[in-house]
Specification:
Elements: H1 2-11, H2 16-33, H3 49-59, E1 64-69, E2 72-78, E3 95-98, E4 101-107, H4 109-130, H5 136-149, E5 161-169, E6 172-178, E7 184-186, E8 189-192, H6 196-206, H7 213-226, E9 237-243, E10 249-251, H8 254-264
Antiparallel strand pairs: 1-2, 1-8, 2-9, 3-4, 4-5, 5-6, 6-7, 9-10
């Protein structure tokens, strides 16, 4: 390809270096395009391009974040709707998996709905067998395995969502992020979605390992406000928390969210 590019440059009497770079870039793009529609074939650069496209879908979604505190975990998200005609009560981005685990997403809502249903089935199967709630990390692994299966099977596509899963068990409060590739990591604080770069930068500056749950909720709201378009209200912000005192996950009511917004101001 390089030799062909040089021949083209010499034939048309262009400067070799600049034009060679352009021609090679075109060749690389064309080469990647051959693999962009295949989920099960690696490109010459060692990437599965469909997973990269799934991550782009996540980055175009609404911002979601999570913060682990000393006595709990908070997850929060922007759930602004595209039209005033939509019933905002019907829009819910934070869901409970079982009594002690909750999840929020950024990306494609329908894909998220499928994963929530599968996660609930895994949690219930564990409870029926062992008569206790599934450990947070084990549930994260189960969900990550489902997402990974959709990266190496023909006739399917990766899930276009990233998840933040929070919970509390014998190991204390925990926060995990699961990506479309099926990879997962434990986080002290993380953000995903449209404004995740600025949100993570803000969290890096504000996060403190000694932070308690109330401070974490205020920090979450301040982080969302950094890239929020318009006015933040209890109708377009959703917050879920799990605390070590009760070990239970719950979604805050609009009235509770409004109180925290007033305190944040």
């Amino acid at each position: 390809q390089l030799a062909l590019a040089r021949c083209v440059c010499q034939a048309y009497r262009f400067r070799p270096r600049s034009v060679v770079r352009r021609v090679v870039a075109v060749f690389v793009t064309m080469s990647n395009a051959r693999y962009s529609f295949s989920l099960t074939t690696f490109s010459p650069t060692g990437k599965l391009l469909q997973i990269e496209y799934a991550l782009k879908a996540v980055s175009q979604g609404r911002t979601s974040l999570g913060i682990q505190a000393t006595n709990g975990v908070v997850i929060a998200t922007d759930k602004k709707v595209p039209s005033t005609l939509i019933d905002k009560k019907a829009v819910q981005k934070i869901h409970m998996i079982n009594g002690s685990i909750g999840v929020v997403y950024s990306g494609m809502g329908p894909d998220y709905r499928v994963l929530v249903r599968k996660a609930r089935k895994k949690a219930q199967a564990y409870f029926l067998k062992y008569k206790e709630d599934i450990p947070v990390l084990q549930l994260v692994r189960e969900v990550a395995d489902v997402m990974q299966e959709f990266t190496q099977s023909g006739g399917v596509r990766p899930f276009g969502v990233s998840l933040l899963i929070c919970g509390c068990d014998e190991d204390g409060p925990q926060l995990y992020q699961v990506d479309p590739s099926g990879s997962y990591f434990g986080w002290r604080a993380s953000a995903m979605g449209k404004n995740f770069v600025n949100a993570k930068t803000f969290l890096e500056k504000r996060y403190n390992e000694e932070m308690e749950l109330e401070d974490a909720i205020h920090t979450a709201l301040l982080t969302l406000r950094e890239g929020f378009e318009g006015e933040m209200t209890a109708k377009n912000i959703e917050i879920g928390i799990v605390d070590t005192e009760t070990g239970k996950f719950r979604v805050l009511t609009p009235e509770q969210v409004a109180d925290y917004l007033e305190e944040a101001d």
